[in-house]
Amino acid sequence: MLRPHLDDGVPLVRVASHAGRPYRTLQRRLADYRRDGLAGLARRPRRDAGTRRLPRELQLLIEGLALQRPAPSIATIHRQVATVASEQRWPVPSYATVYAIICGLDPAMTEPAQQGRVATRSCTSWCTGARPSDPTRSGWPATPSSTCG
To answer: Got the DSSP string for 69-110?
Structure first.
Protein backbone atom coordinates (compact mmCIF):
# COMPACT_ATOMS: atom_id res chain seq x y z
CA MET A 1 0.00 0.00 0.00
CA LEU A 2 2.91 2.36 0.72
CA ARG A 3 4.87 1.29 -2.35
CA PRO A 4 3.49 3.97 -4.73
CA HIS A 5 4.50 6.64 -2.23
CA LEU A 6 7.94 5.17 -1.56
CA ASP A 7 8.85 4.08 -5.10
CA ASP A 8 7.07 6.57 -7.33
CA GLY A 9 6.74 9.58 -5.05
CA VAL A 10 2.94 9.63 -5.19
CA PRO A 11 1.65 11.93 -2.43
CA LEU A 12 0.47 10.00 0.61
CA VAL A 13 -2.89 11.81 0.52
CA ARG A 14 -3.54 10.44 -2.98
CA VAL A 15 -2.43 6.92 -1.96
CA ALA A 16 -4.78 7.06 1.03
CA SER A 17 -7.78 8.18 -1.00
CA HIS A 18 -7.09 5.64 -3.74
CA ALA A 19 -6.72 2.81 -1.19
CA GLY A 20 -9.74 3.95 0.81
CA ARG A 21 -7.67 4.15 4.00
CA PRO A 22 -7.47 7.06 6.43
CA TYR A 23 -4.55 9.38 5.76
CA ARG A 24 -3.49 9.30 9.43
CA THR A 25 -3.30 5.49 9.34
CA LEU A 26 -0.93 5.59 6.38
CA GLN A 27 1.15 8.25 8.12
CA ARG A 28 1.56 5.95 11.13
CA ARG A 29 2.37 2.96 8.95
CA LEU A 30 4.94 4.99 7.02
CA ALA A 31 6.57 6.13 10.26
CA ASP A 32 6.67 2.50 11.47
CA TYR A 33 8.27 1.44 8.19
CA ARG A 34 10.89 4.17 8.28
CA ARG A 35 11.73 3.42 11.91
CA ASP A 36 11.79 -0.42 11.81
CA GLY A 37 11.74 -1.44 8.14
CA LEU A 38 9.42 -4.27 7.13
CA ALA A 39 9.32 -5.50 10.73
CA GLY A 40 7.57 -2.25 11.63
CA LEU A 41 4.65 -3.20 9.38
CA ALA A 42 4.09 -6.56 11.10
CA ARG A 43 1.12 -6.89 13.42
CA ARG A 44 2.00 -6.39 17.03
CA PRO A 45 0.46 -8.57 19.73
CA ARG A 46 -2.01 -6.85 22.00
CA ARG A 47 -0.62 -5.60 25.28
CA ASP A 48 -3.44 -7.27 27.17
CA ALA A 49 -3.15 -10.59 25.31
CA GLY A 50 -3.69 -13.56 27.60
CA THR A 51 -5.46 -11.59 30.32
CA ARG A 52 -9.12 -11.60 31.17
CA ARG A 53 -11.17 -8.65 32.28
CA LEU A 54 -13.30 -10.68 34.65
CA PRO A 55 -13.45 -10.28 38.39
CA ARG A 56 -11.27 -12.90 40.06
CA GLU A 57 -14.33 -14.13 41.98
CA LEU A 58 -16.12 -14.89 38.71
CA GLN A 59 -13.18 -16.88 37.37
CA LEU A 60 -13.02 -18.84 40.64
CA LEU A 61 -16.77 -19.52 40.37
CA ILE A 62 -16.31 -20.94 36.86
CA GLU A 63 -13.44 -23.14 38.02
CA GLY A 64 -15.36 -24.32 41.07
CA LEU A 65 -18.43 -25.23 39.04
CA ALA A 66 -16.26 -27.15 36.57
CA LEU A 67 -14.85 -29.27 39.40
CA GLN A 68 -18.25 -30.39 40.68
CA ARG A 69 -19.25 -34.02 40.65
CA PRO A 70 -20.91 -35.06 38.36
CA ALA A 71 -19.42 -32.69 35.84
CA PRO A 72 -21.97 -30.18 34.54
CA SER A 73 -21.89 -29.25 30.88
CA ILE A 74 -20.12 -26.08 29.88
CA ALA A 75 -23.47 -24.65 28.76
CA THR A 76 -24.89 -25.27 32.24
CA ILE A 77 -21.89 -23.61 33.85
CA HIS A 78 -22.21 -20.66 31.47
CA ARG A 79 -25.89 -20.17 32.33
CA GLN A 80 -25.18 -20.28 36.07
CA VAL A 81 -22.25 -17.89 35.77
CA ALA A 82 -24.29 -15.49 33.61
CA THR A 83 -26.99 -15.38 36.28
CA VAL A 84 -24.52 -14.67 39.08
CA ALA A 85 -22.65 -12.09 37.00
CA SER A 86 -25.89 -10.23 36.26
CA GLU A 87 -26.90 -10.26 39.92
CA GLN A 88 -23.50 -8.91 40.98
CA ARG A 89 -23.43 -6.37 38.12
CA TRP A 90 -20.26 -7.94 36.74
CA PRO A 91 -19.59 -8.33 33.02
CA VAL A 92 -21.22 -11.50 31.73
CA PRO A 93 -18.53 -13.71 30.19
CA SER A 94 -19.12 -15.20 26.78
CA TYR A 95 -19.48 -18.93 26.31
CA ALA A 96 -16.03 -18.93 24.67
CA THR A 97 -14.50 -17.32 27.76
CA VAL A 98 -16.10 -19.88 30.07
CA TYR A 99 -14.96 -22.66 27.74
CA ALA A 100 -11.38 -21.31 27.69
CA ILE A 101 -11.23 -21.06 31.48
CA ILE A 102 -12.49 -24.62 31.92
CA CYS A 103 -10.18 -26.02 29.25
CA GLY A 104 -7.30 -24.18 30.88
CA LEU A 105 -7.74 -26.06 34.15
CA ASP A 106 -4.95 -28.44 35.03
CA PRO A 107 -6.01 -32.05 34.29
CA ALA A 108 -4.42 -33.08 37.59
CA MET A 109 -7.21 -31.08 39.25
CA THR A 110 -10.13 -31.96 37.00
CA GLU A 111 -9.69 -35.70 36.67
CA PRO A 112 -9.57 -36.49 40.39
CA ALA A 113 -12.48 -34.12 41.00
CA GLN A 114 -14.56 -35.86 38.36
CA GLN A 115 -13.56 -39.45 39.18
CA GLY A 116 -13.48 -39.33 42.96
CA ARG A 117 -11.19 -40.78 45.61
CA VAL A 118 -10.02 -43.83 43.66
CA ALA A 119 -8.80 -41.66 40.79
CA THR A 120 -7.06 -39.33 43.24
CA ARG A 121 -5.27 -42.25 44.87
CA SER A 122 -4.43 -43.80 41.50
CA CYS A 123 -3.20 -40.62 39.83
CA THR A 124 -1.16 -39.66 42.86
CA SER A 125 0.45 -43.07 42.98
CA TRP A 126 1.36 -43.03 39.29
CA CYS A 127 2.84 -39.56 39.56
CA THR A 128 4.95 -40.44 42.58
CA GLY A 129 5.89 -43.91 41.37
CA ALA A 130 4.31 -45.66 44.39
CA ARG A 131 2.59 -48.87 43.44
CA PRO A 132 0.94 -51.72 45.34
CA SER A 133 2.32 -55.20 44.87
CA ASP A 134 -0.85 -56.52 43.19
CA PRO A 135 -2.88 -53.79 41.45
CA THR A 136 -5.74 -56.12 40.50
CA ARG A 137 -6.57 -57.00 44.12
CA SER A 138 -6.26 -53.58 45.68
CA GLY A 139 -8.58 -51.83 43.24
CA TRP A 140 -5.74 -49.89 41.66
CA PRO A 141 -5.68 -49.61 37.87
CA ALA A 142 -3.36 -51.91 35.98
CA THR A 143 -2.13 -49.06 33.77
CA PRO A 144 -1.86 -45.35 34.35
CA SER A 145 -3.83 -44.60 31.20
CA SER A 146 -6.95 -46.24 32.60
CA THR A 147 -7.58 -43.32 34.97
CA CYS A 148 -5.00 -40.62 34.38
CA GLY A 149 -5.02 -40.73 30.58
So the answer is: SSPPPHHHHHHHHHHHHHHHTPPPPPHHHHHHHHHTS-HHHH
